[in-house]
Amino acid sequence: MTDIHMSEDVRTALGEDGAAKAGAVTLHHAICLGCQKKIDPEEPVNVVVRIGGRIAHIRYAHAECHPSALVEIPEPRTPAGPQAPQEGAVMRMTAATVDHGGSVLPVLVAELEAPVFLVATGARDLVDVLASHVLARGFSPVGRLRHAPAPAQQWQAACTAPDADGVAQLTVTEPDGAVFYTGTILPPDPWVAWVERYGWAVLYVGKIGLAGLPLGDQPARTRLLREAAAEGRLVGARVPVRHLGRGRTDIGA
Predict the structure, then answer these.
(1) 0.70 exceeded by pTM
(2) Rounded Cα distance, 96 and 243, in Å
(3) What is the pLDDT of residues 202-245, one digit of tens each?
(4) Which helix (H) or strand (E) segment is 14 a member of?
(5) CA atoms of 55 and 49, how far apart (whole Å)
(6) Using CA atoms, how far apart are residues 52 and 45, in angstroms rounded to an integer?
């Protein structure tokens, strides 16, 4: 676990529960608030709380780049609500096949490399910014992996066939056409077959902790997903997936 430091002002602003959650993370490929470079999980970091109106963004920084502190930022002119990850937040997408009550389903798991939280400063209740974002766009909380969650209307995904190295290109778009994710995935062999069979994949979002697992360790991925669901850290939806030819992820084509 990363060595994380926070000032007394930060601890007071977050409250006991918020401070515990902000400090109990391991930062894989996190981006430093100060220098905008990656944070090594083994080096100490400071927690910086950027407050604008009633919303506080929790960010992390190298110890030499920024002290642990409360930083006032201009209050948004529009009402505060679920927001997309801040610039500099890196999303990780993992493809897996997961048993749901006896049915094996194709799954995509989106999680931020470094957690970004929102906290209502009066309630001091941390909310994962990525989960909050998709909940406002048709996703639902997931408590158990027994059935596929309901479809998210007008979300779309397109995936190319894996190349010789097993790498596929994936693009996921939101109902308004905004790009939620575009990049690569390493789908296990059965994943493509299940997508072709169903025409969709289950997209899970939350703080799961898949970073660092061996690529082929499907049982470990399933275990972490089940734990996240049981602890209230998982939201999900079914998203249509178009399986395209090599090298194309143009959803509108």
Answers:
(1) yes
(2) 16
(3) 999 988 878 667 777 888 888 999 998 998 889 999 999 998 76
(4) helix 8-23
(5) 10
(6) 22
